[in-house]
Amino acid sequence: MSKGTVVLAYSGGLDTSCILVWLKEQGYDVITFLANVGQDEDFKAAKDKAETLGAKKVFIEDVRAEFVEDFIWPALQANAIYEDRYLLGTAIARPCIARKLVEIARREGAQFISHGATGKGNDQIRFELSCYALYPEVKVRLQIPEFYNRFKGRKDLMEYAQKHGIPVPVSPKAPWSMDANLMHIRWAGCIFFLFLKQHAPADLYMMTKNPEDSPNSADVLEIEFKNGVPIKVVDVKQGTSKSSPLDIFSYLNLIGGNHGVGRIDIVENRFIGMKSRGIYETPGGTILLKAHLDIETFTMDKEVRRIKQGLGIKFSELVYNGFWYSPECEFVRHCINKSQENVEGKVQLSIFKGQVYILGRESPKSLYNEELVSMDVQGDYDPCDASGFIRINAVRLASPQPAQSSLSMELF
Asked: In the chain, where are the structural domains located?
């Protein structure tokens, strides 16, 4: 008798293929779900493999459009960057995938969900927190002693795959793991990632060219924003344009990737406490971040933007740690979205040899006053007022300061 139905977030790789067969061994009916979030994938081959391995049903869902509109765009509005460098491509995709996973689980009456995320990484937390938030009654059939006692590492998984006739996709020429979606590609998992001094292999990158091999002439783009998100991109040289969210992002990936934009090699702090090394390629996201920062700065009030910057940092931490569906993240997203009401206009930029250069900008909501900042026109500004402003701010600086030693003694 079946122990119940599990919906497995399936990729077709070593881990999830072994998990599929193992769950069946344990007595579960397994439904697999593969999300198309923009990765280069043979979806038919993955479907055929899942059916061959015994999946009761196989769902493949194209969620690219909602990934851009519901997840990437809010991250762009927030200027979301984790620890000053990482644009959160994997972290943003997880709640998108989890939402569809839960939708299928509810529709199919499944009591359980499962995934292939490692016990040491962030993704297990992101998947499970999202699923519990959206489907509180669901249970996870993976993070249990029976599984970890059986599979202590990739060697055990490889042996299990060979024993059960599961095709192994990892080749000796490409031993690293890859997480790919429309937003980025993340590289990790190879032995060289453990040695921080060792440079990444030149043939590792797939989404971006080496900037040295990129075109010798720049591409010039104009990106139009409304409410803090792009609504149109124009290729100035080609005279072509894109206007749907998915088309805009895909085109910026193409242009940015061709010029080697968006490569980073970083060490980051995982939510569970350990540091890890990752290499990321985020071409389109990097272009949009540069453009959005520019349009936002001259259309948003200074103090509002100062508060919004703090909210952006908080948003990035919440998303990285898996709390997209938490009440605090919903509140922060609402506040950030409110801040974007006047972030409207056009930014002209060039893409060249791994860099994004801002060329100019315009906006009907601009707070920039040409007359006020002019060195040749006084306008409504009285320079004499600056003297009083400076004297007031100097009061604190001109006051006697206690010696550091005496201050330390008083404190202790």
From this structure: 5-173, 178-300+342-362
Gyration radius (Cα) of the chain, Å: 25
Q: Is 263 a catalytic residue?
A: no
On the 0-12 / 13-18 / 19+ scale of CB atoms within 10 A, 395 is: exposed
pLDDT at residue 190, as a whole number: 65
Query: Can you name the CATH fold of 5-173?
Result: Rossmann fold (3.40.50)
Q: Which of 11, 15, 29, 130 is catalytic?
A: 15
CA neighbor of 131 nearest in space, from 117, 144, 145 = 117
Q: Is 30 buried (19+), middle (13-18) or exposed (0-12) by CB count in 10 A?
A: buried
> What is the Cα–Cα distance from 301 to 303, expressed in whole angstroms?
6
Question: 3-state SS of 199-231?
Answer: CCCCCCCCCCCCHHHCCCCCEEEEEEEECCEEE
Tokens of 307: 């508060």
Q: Active site includes 94?
A: yes
Per the annotation, the verdict on 177 as an active-site residue is: yes
Q: What is the mean pLDDT of each run of 10 residues along the chain (412 residues)?
A: 94 91 94 97 95 97 98 98 97 98 97 88 94 96 75 86 82 67 88 82 93 97 98 97 98 98 96 93 98 97 97 98 98 98 98 98 92 67 86 90 62 58
**Catalytic one of 154, 177, 235, 241:** 177
> Is the Cβ–Cβ distance between 122 and 86 less than 8 Å?
no
Report the relative pairing of strands 29-36 and 5-9 from DSSP bridges. Answer: parallel
**CATH number for the domain running over 178-300+342-362:** 3.90.1260.10
